[in-house]
Amino acid sequence: MWTIFATSMKRKLKNPTIIVNYILLPLLLIVILGNALSSVFDKDDEGGAAVPASLSQMKTVVVNDDKGKLGADIVAFLTSEDNKALFDVTVETDAKKAEQMIEDGDAEQYIYIPSDLTSGFESKKESNVTVYGEDSNIDKVNITGLMLSTFGDGYLAMDVSSAGNQKELYTHVYSNLLTTNGSKDGSTDGKDDSSNITALSYYGVTMLVLILVYGLANTMNFVQEEYSEALGDRYLVSPLSRTSLILGQLLTGCAISIVQGIIIVLCAQWFFDVSYGDNMLVVFFIIVAGSIFFNALGLILGVIARRVKAIDSVVTLLIPVMTFIGGGFIKIDLGGLKNMSINELYQQPLFDYIQQGVINLAPVYSSLVAALGFILISVYSLTRKGVR
Amino acid sequence: MRTVFAGEAIQFSYNKKKPVLKGLSLSIGDKQIYGLLGPNGAGKSTLTKVMLGLDKPQGGKLQWFNEHMNASTNRRVGYVPQDLALLYDLSAYENVMFFGKLYDLKGERLKKQVRFALEFVGLWDERNQKPKKFSGGMKRRLNIACGIVHNPDVIILDEPTVGVDPQSRNRILDAILELNQIGTTVVYISHYMEEVEKICSHVGIIDNGQLLCQGTLNDIIQQHTDQAILKLELQRKSTAYAKQLEQYNVLSTDGNMVEIGIPKNDVGAITVIKDAFGEEVKSFQYISPNLEQVFFKLTKKNLRD
Partner of A325 for a Cys bridge, out of A181, A341, A348, B157, CB 3.0 to 4.6 A? Predict the structure, then answer.
């Protein structure tokens, strides 16, 4: 296994195009995409370089159609003394007028409380508060969404504790937390750079995942090249066990992916001030797990389809498509379609951790189990002689 | 003689409708140079893969060194595939070193074996060059070096001289003979009849998934040929001698050339025929029974068909 690993690494390192393809390209993507699209994230970010967003008091218009207690409580919450530093609230009764305020720039966000909020809550039916805002104010909108979610969680907790363990029906009004503030203490003065999310931070995550996904293609191509022709026959007739052969190849791919991932993270942090959260061990674990998963997937594809050259083109096409669907290139929310992107398996836990401090590694653990299956099938497929 | 490989009633097919090996039996003795001949599609490559364990036979028995194939027997067998199996990013030395390591060679022994293999194929001076800079013949020789670095008891060479210049071909053939002289059993798969005749002590002819014959080169020729050939070049076109030729076993005619079959080992027949045509004979050539005749007789095909 170590012979295969060491020799494969040597071969890769001797190839100068590897440096360009594996390392420089993703870094370049972060810079290009991050800078080119930074205005989408923060309108104050001018002059090319991304500047951390600074949150001042948010001009907010609220339309409360709910005549019940919950609607009133939300308005009271938004206009409370505690939140005055954050929200400059105007209460409106006409939704169209509120929308016009957004269009005219008189308000940065518009919170709509539906008429059935309280009744829905009491009758255990779903009802959502909606926050509207321009893309340029997405940071502020996200923070408001997060605060309202927290408020809703508190309400739900009280309800559950008073009514017993009933089924949870309340759902967060906001799910897309890709660019929300990761501040733990709720400060909004922008002094803590790590608490502010920039376009580069967003691409810091999506490009990190993209480079891990590329491990799939790299390992698949490598295995295809090694095993489809005479070279593979030469490996297979040697006394080396199939498991050693497989693990040697996998280890090579993983090592490269891990190095790539670390380089991306370090360069993004050092040169572009990208935030990857407080505990780098979590990010490192996700990089290692992602490397194993994507390379194992590449391994099984390479072994099973080692004589099917067309699969290379399919995978090469699918990777950018998956990345696009997962919002990797352009920050886009395609709803449920996003879940079809394999990148999401690793993007979401990274965003959860970096921006909310939430460590939700369930998808990562599931992918590791899948990786183990891929490896076992690959070994079996190679061991089963005569497979063509 | 000790048997290094024994295959009995080997059956193999990629799909059930078209079997590739139909109960083929084959035996290779120690220190032989065993030439495996067969026309395209005869099943040579499949047999090679089955022998190496790359394809699993559906029937029959297969043993290396009187054992079922295992890691230990694998260590004793070397394989030089027809297609070049080299790592083009690495130097010739690193290539051979890598394949040596796959066979558990380490330290000084590995270095010694790498040197032996590269010197053996005449590439020691070019050891630091990458194979992509090599000529076709040099690549072939490096391919062989990678297959013999672990000093196998048996080496299987699949068409090792395809696409190489005559000089490299001779060098490869000499190397194979030398390898055999130091005790290595050689299984030589080739399209080139003259190569097999030149270096092989034993021959097996395979066609249509079956072994048609096997044995020493001389035995096979003796058993499967009954005539030699007398090739005459006449003064006029052969049609001019039609009546005279009727009494002979004419194998072919082409312009002034006539090939007549004569009983093998009957040297007297040469004189009789030559005298019968007298001054009409411009030149003549005696072609003793050979492998090509055996091959044609058994397969009804030319080897390059």
Answer: A341
Cα separation, A130 vs A113, in Å, equals 7
Interchain CB distance below 8 Å, A388 and B14? yes
Report the residue from A14, A236, A240 with minimal CB separation from B54: A236
> Where does CATH 3.40.50.300 sit in chain B?
3-222
A3 contacts in chain B (CB < 8 Å): 98, 101-102
Q: Within 10 A of A103 (CB to CB), how many other CB atoms are there?
A: 9
Answer yes or no: is the ipTM higher than 0.90.
Answer: no
The secondary element (H helix, E strand) that includes residue B108 is helix B107-120
pLDDT in tens, B264-286: 777 788 888 888 888 888 888 88
Tokens read off for B245: 């030729």
- Put simply, the answer to whether B72 touches A239 (Cβ < 8 Å) is yes
Q: At what angle do helices B92-102 and B107-120 cross, to 10 degrees?
A: 130
Q: Report the top-level CATH class of B3-222.
A: alpha beta
Which H/E stretch holds residue B234?
strand B227-234
Quick one: CATH architecture of B226-288? 2-Layer Sandwich (3.30)
Question: What residues of chain A lie within 8 A of the CB of B104, using their CB?
Answer: 239
Is the Cβ pair A239, B90 closer than 8 Å?
no
> How would you list the strands of the sheet with B154-158, edge to edge?
B77-80, B154-158, B185-189, B33-37, B202-207, B210-216
pLDDT (tens digit, 9 = 90+) per residue, A275-327? 787 788 888 999 999 999 999 999 888 888 777 777 777 877 777 777 777 77
What is the least distance, in Å, from the CA of A307 to any CA of chain B? 15
Edge-to-edge order in the sheet of strand B249-254: B249-254, B257-263, B227-234, B281-287
Residues of chain B with CATH 3.30.70: 226-288
DSSP state at residue A163: H
